[in-house]
């Protein structure tokens, strides 16, 4: 039995109420906490199966819908838009807020965080901005475009913000970014073949109004801002070198350059002193390994890593460090 509890908390933007959810074991004290950070154009409810899997095995799981996503958006017009400006900062701060709230709810528990895709970028930003506040981090479907590509995308999205306004939607920018991921899977059955090989998951994603929106030009600009911050030496030098890191992805994931980008990011963390870095690439897997045809294997591998690192925790991380 799994107990779910929905709740809200004030966003750092001072405007929105962030929608969040707990998944808790039906009996006994949770052994540890895992905070989930979802990706772009989706919402935390898509992680229900994985969260229940962990809760059934004694873990407490918590996650929220980002600004412009899921139930945090006040209506569909807000889908795909963090803020008019400083959106990346708000998303990062909301993730931090949930860490503090969860720590107060379940104090003294080993605490881990798992971010997928855009959520992996947010999680990487969290690790650099708030080092030492989690006992380990898992990064699903991450990657890192070249500095030149990120700089160009940021400049284009900034121009579009001026011409169209922050809430504008650009089919061209989308085609050059998210839309490009589908090309390696031609002939395409849908516009989301790249997320995984399970056609039922893909069809549900395509049909879901909380997934099929076009991100705003300001959201693209915010993400490029975040990607630039993630590779700045002065930020990477703040990393808590003792925090264990687990990178997992499919070796056919275009976001991670079919594995090369994942290894690049893992290598970057090692370069700046990370002592415990594990990389797992799944043959044939695409972007959403937690929804892939071999998801039971992925669930088991992720749980095994979490349990092994939990066993190593002597004093849980201080959420206020």
Write structural notes for this entry:
- The protein is of the alpha/beta class and 321 residues long.
- It has a domain at 2-144 and 232-312: Rossmann fold (3-Layer(aba) Sandwich).
- The chain contains ten helices and eight strands.
- Strands 1-2-4-3-5-6-7-8 form an eight-stranded mixed sheet, sandwiched between helices.
- Helix 2 crosses helix 3, helix 3 packs across helix 7 (217-230) and helix 4 (147-164) packs antiparallel against helix 7.
- It starts with a strand and ends in a 9-residue tail after the last helix.
- The mean pLDDT is 95.
In a nutshell, what does this entry contain?
This protein is an alpha/beta fold and 321 residues long.
Mean pLDDT: 95
Residue stretches low in confidence (pLDDT < 50, at least 5 long) are none
Under CATH, the topology of the domain at 2-144 and 232-312 can be stated as: Rossmann fold
The major β-sheet equals: 8 strands, mixed
Features:
alpha/beta, 321 residues, Rossmann fold, 10 helices, globular, single chain, 17% strand, 8-stranded mixed sheet
Write the layout of secondary structure elements.
Elements: E1 2-10, E2 17-25, E3 32-37, H1 48-55, E4 59-64, H2 87-105, E5 111-116, H3 118-129, E6 136-140, H4 147-164, H5 171-176, H6 199-207, H7 217-230, H8 233-236, E7 245-250, H9 260-271, E8 277-282, H10 295-312
Parallel strand pairs: 3-4, 3-5, 5-6, 6-7, 7-8
Antiparallel strand pairs: 1-2, 2-4
């Amino acid at each position: 039995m799994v107990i779910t509890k929905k709740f809200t908390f004030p966003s750092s933007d001072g405007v929105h109420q962030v929608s969040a959810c707990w998944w808790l074991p039906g009996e006994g004290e949770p052994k540890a906490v895992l905070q989930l950070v979802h990706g772009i154009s989706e919402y935390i409810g898509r992680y229900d199966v994985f969260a229940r899997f962990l809760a059934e095995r004694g873990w407490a799981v918590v996650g929220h819908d980002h600004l412009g996503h899921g139930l945090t958006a006040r209506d569909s017009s807000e889908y795909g838009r963090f803020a008019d400006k400083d959106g990346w900062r708000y998303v990062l701060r909301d993730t931090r807020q949930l860490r503090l709230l969860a720590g107060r709810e379940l104090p003294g528990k080993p605490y881990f965080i798992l971010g997928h895709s855009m959520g992996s970028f947010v999680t990487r930003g969290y690790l650099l901005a708030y080092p030492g506040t989690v006992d380990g981090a898992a990064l699903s479907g991450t990657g890192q475009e070249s500095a030149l590509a990120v700089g160009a995308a940021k400049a284009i999205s900034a121009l579009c913000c001026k011409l169209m306004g922050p809430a504008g939607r650009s089919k061209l920018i989308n085609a050059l970014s998210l839309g490009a991921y589908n090309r390696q899977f031609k002939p395409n059955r849908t516009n989301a073949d790249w997320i995984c090989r399970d056609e039922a998951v893909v069809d549900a994603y395509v049909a879901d109004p909380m997934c099929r929106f076009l991100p705003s030009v300001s959201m693209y600009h915010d993400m490029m801002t975040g990607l630039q911050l993630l590779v700045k030496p002065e930020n990477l030098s703040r990393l808590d070198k003792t925090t264990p890191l687990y990178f997992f992805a499919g070796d056919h994931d275009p976001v991670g350059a079919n594995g090369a980008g994942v290894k690049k990011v893992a290598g970057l963390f090692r370069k700046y002193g990370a002592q415990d870095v594990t990389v797992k690439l799944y043959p044939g897997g695409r972007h959403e390994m937690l929804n892939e045809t071999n998801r039971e294997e992925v669930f088991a591998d992720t749980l095994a890593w979490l349990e092994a690192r939990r066993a190593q925790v002597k004093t849980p991380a201080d959420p206020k460090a």
